[in-house]
Specification:
It is a single chain. The protein folds into two domains: 280 residues, 3-Layer(aba) Sandwich (Rossmann fold), CATH 3.40.50; 110 residues, Rossmann fold. Helix 10 packs across helix 11 and helix 10 packs antiparallel against helix 13. The protein is globular, with a radius of gyration of 21 Å. It is an alpha/beta fold. The longest helix is centred in the C-terminal third of the chain and has 23 residues. It comes from Kaistia geumhonensis. One of its GO terms (molecular function) is acid phosphatase activity. Belongs to the histidine acid phosphatase family. Its EC number is 3.1.3.2, 3.1.3.26.
Length: 424
Amino acid sequence: MIALLAGWGGALPAMADPVPVRPEPGWTIDGTVLLSRHGMRGSTIPVRCGPETKGCLATDSKDPWPTLDVAAGHLTTAGYTRSVTMGTYYRRLYAAAGLLPPEGCITPSTLEFTSDAVERTVMTAGAIMDGMAPGCGLMDISIRQGLYRGASCGFEKAEAEKASQAFVGGSWQAVAEGKMARSLDVLSRTLGELPAGTCEKSGLPAGCHLSDLCATPAEAGPLAIAGGSSELFAMQYGGGLPADEIGWGRLAEAAGEPLGQAVTTATATHALYDSATWMPLYQATRLGSQTLNLVNEQLGEIAAGKGALFRFLSSHDDFILNVGGMLGLSWNLDSYNPYQIPPGGSVAFELWRNPEGARFVRLVYRAQTLDQLRENTALDVDHPPAAQVMVPAKCAGAVAGACPLDQFSALVSAAIEPACVAKP
């Protein structure tokens, strides 16, 4: 897997060609299932806030975080408004594709919104709904506790750690001292002194910095704690916070780059660690079979002419990475790092039919760029978010990036471990 790391380290990827609304002229769409990550949130780790701290105490720095006025892990106001923007875009996109009417309210049975029982995913589904059908009144959101959690089917932490180590090329140390060295240095200088407890756990004296932590071939060391903070910088930037509040105003100087580029540089650590944690087949199959099975069932219903034509599954980054690992997908969206899961983005599983009637599944990852998030840029088919077509690794008969439905179904069936799927 080491070759997959070539794009890491902060260099902005070249803009991909715009993804056409239709894979080929004359193709018609039967429906789509969107597997989405929730929008921008506050830190998932509760931190003490109040006047005496001049903000919220950070878990990975002695300096206080900016106050985002939400409980731990909840969707921020900016996260909601940006998700509304994506909902508006989905309406315009799938109206152009011929799936939805371009104007007016949509027949409720045409749309289906499903979420697990987590505040940020429920609120994201509601925001997408607001963007797609403004002023039409709220439709039902199907909320299912543990929706993406499958059956317990055997998970050994030691085996998962070995799989993650192999994913990064065999040595966390080599990655930390190589491809991730610059990103870790930028983060170390941005974070400043780490909390005393973090230093103590690492066997270091108080006042230590991220750069004082060492990775080993089998242990991620600084990469294991750097990712969470770096992603919060992306949430701060995308949420429109003033530059002097993003990374305490130190991030751009630490990177020697414009602020947006510095965020990309810093978040390389998060993207790498998360993908290595959730994408290897060992953990992807055990933890992602439930999600991929859910997507496949919904596609099957659309193919059979049953139920809603547009289906939105409000989910989390780890489950998207699980599915990506199971299907052998790869992506690198504009302003992000390889395998990064932007807040509010989604993987669309689109069911298409060519003029001869043959059916295909096209997978498209769409997400607002960092600057589109920051400015809350209006989006339409002529001004789209970042997008990339993804072809499953073993799909040999793809046409215009779309996999024949029978091949796709066979690949999914082979990837899913039935024992890891929760029984109805």
